[in-house]
What we know:
single chain; 6% helix
Amino acid sequence: MKRFLNVLKPAVVLAVLYMAAGCASFKGDIPVESEMEDIYLSPVNQDGVMDEVSLNVSVPEIKGLKLQEYSIRIVSENDEIAFLAEQKEEKRGIFKRKKIVTIPDDLSWDGKLPDGSWAPDGPYMVYADVRDYSGNSGSYGPLTIRVDNTAPYAELYLPFTIFSPNGDESQDRLDIYQLNTSSEALWTGNFLDENGNTVRSFQWQGPAQDFSWDGSDNEGSTVPEGTYSYALNSVDEAGNRTDLLVKGLQIDNRTYPVSLSLPGSSDFSPNGDGVKDTVVIQISTGDKDKIDSLSMSIINAEGSVVDSLQGNGTDQYVFTGKAKGQVLPEGYYYAVLDVLYENGDKQKAVSDRMVLDVTPPQAVIKAQYLLFSPDGDGRKDETEIFQSTSLETLWTGAVLSGNKVIRTWQWDERALPVVWDGRDAAGVVVPDGVYSYRLESTDSAGNSARFYSSNIRTDVTPRPVRLVPSYNVFSPNQDGEADLIAFELKPEITAGIVAWEFLVNDSGNQTVYSVGKQESVVPETLFWDGSGPEGSVLEGAFTATLLVEYDKGNLSNGVTETPFVLDLTPPEIKLTASPLPFSPDGDGENDRLDIGVEVNDPSGVRSWNGKILDPAGNLFLTFDPTGLKNGVFTWNGKDKRGELVQAASDYQVEITAYDSVGNRSVQTLTVPVDILVLKDGDRLKIIISSIYFKPYTADYLSVDPDIKARNLATLDRLAVILKKYSQYKIQLEGHAVRIFWKDEKKWKTEEDEVLLPLSQERAEKIREALIRRGIDPGRMSAIGLGGYQPVVPHSDETNRWKNRRVEFILVK
Length: 812
């Protein structure tokens, strides 16, 4: 740090006037005239500024005045002589010529004491005395000379030298701390560019003050990015100068991108087994040399900080999944990087999800049969391994003979039930013997687990048996009719039976149902409900087989002599409607709809009925097939209460039929309703509730593509119809559904703040759309009525959708 002094006062010349001798004797005090003033002196630095003070002595010429002596002295506060200049002549006789004393014109004081040392800092007093030969005297003083060899002083501190005045509230200003400064007449601080040009100046009287620079110049404009210096200087009244300079101040408005990546696995298990115990977090930053601070923390799924990480260098951190030596709870974690650059740029990056998982894969397995006979006789030809597992990347199942792998399966995510048919990987039936099934998995976090089902035996022993079904056809549709088929089981030999099994095979000889027990008694009757291995019911022709296992291990089978049929096919329904689109508005065109129905089934049709559903899926009308004439039902577009269909909407005709065995069939047909022009007194009315707007907006285009297409088609059709009524004025009325209809205060607020402006805006949007489609804007006006004119009560949650509509009133 430099200290400097700027001395502004010029040197002061001390003048001592004396009285010149004249021809005649002078009587009285010798007058002293002077322009003297207090001055400062700084002799030690020898910088050419106020290094000495001139003591110019002169007296006016007065007749008769003859100086005999003079004395000029400078004394300290302690009255010690610092400088002395004097002369005195001896007094002569009356007739002798008196020698006149003359004060030199070039007297000066260089700030040194008589012993040659520099005078200490402080005030010094100057005195001048004169005397003539007649005893008259004169004096001047004191004049103060302040010796000041101490230059101004200050200490500069900057907490940072790089800042970014870009308005991001981070290091937008450069803080300058000017401490322990002396009090001076003037301190000047200047910010200089790289060429030494001053861009911003500050001044203080007394001590220099702390301040912040916002990066602007003297005109208030932000200076360019670059390198700057700060110069602080002062010159005191004695001419002492101090200059302090801080270089290398940077204005840097750049931003530095940062990111986090997980180059390895993001799933890990910190269980100390050496497999995926940690997660490596890779850091990518901008200019590393510009980083002021960098910190990394770990947060959980709730956003709470659970740990701070220490890195291997600045590029890589390792998350151990522990905090304070303890393994963190299982769940999702994220790394959060906070970087502060020297210029104040703050950057944050969040890693992808890290999954802490110390739970190994979970599974429960069970073999359907521990003893089966893969001999192709349809009885226990295979055993199913039921498996309930956790969700993992890969599961592997294997059949083992001892430690030898016989057959394998693999599944993604969850292991499914597996059926082993007693064959190896090459499709060859394995020898009779004892086998085991193993299921294993290693999850994405490195946790591994194995599960076993042991003592699975294969054995082949044939024996003849018979069985007789109770029906040739049945329909297990849970309607209470022929839902079960009964079988009489008749093994020819009952001695030595240890187990039995009943199988149902489809027309492809695939087993769809089986039941059996490890017991010596075969039941006389068994029932089948038509369900297959997965619980589903399959239609078609089937045969039943009875397998009986004897103590020797032989299996005997009996097959039904003729197939029995499982019939689940519902009746066939043909449904037509004409004319379309349906337009029941009383204009004589397409006012009635003919619905044609034809029902057929090989087993005969028992009954059928029909109904019509509104666009919201609610029942609109039912009709009895007894009212059909030649398979045709004529509909006038109204329900039984006389309510007419909604214009520009789709209604569904639904026919339900049952065949002779109770199988049910449903057929639907969409009936599009045209835009309806209805007479309302001496005017016409069009009501459309099928234009769909994005919720709480008047936007009918930013919706699903299918809905948007319907909106545009409705508007196109509406434009065509309105052009037919060119002699009519058109008033568009927007209506809405009142949600808070129970609470009067709320629904009034809802009307004022939402429904009225929204319905108005929607009506205006439709008006704009019709103008684009060629409708004269002078014909149309738009008004929003909110929920004040519902067509059904707002409390009718099933039908109140009809209140969300746009009505077109046509008036001649």
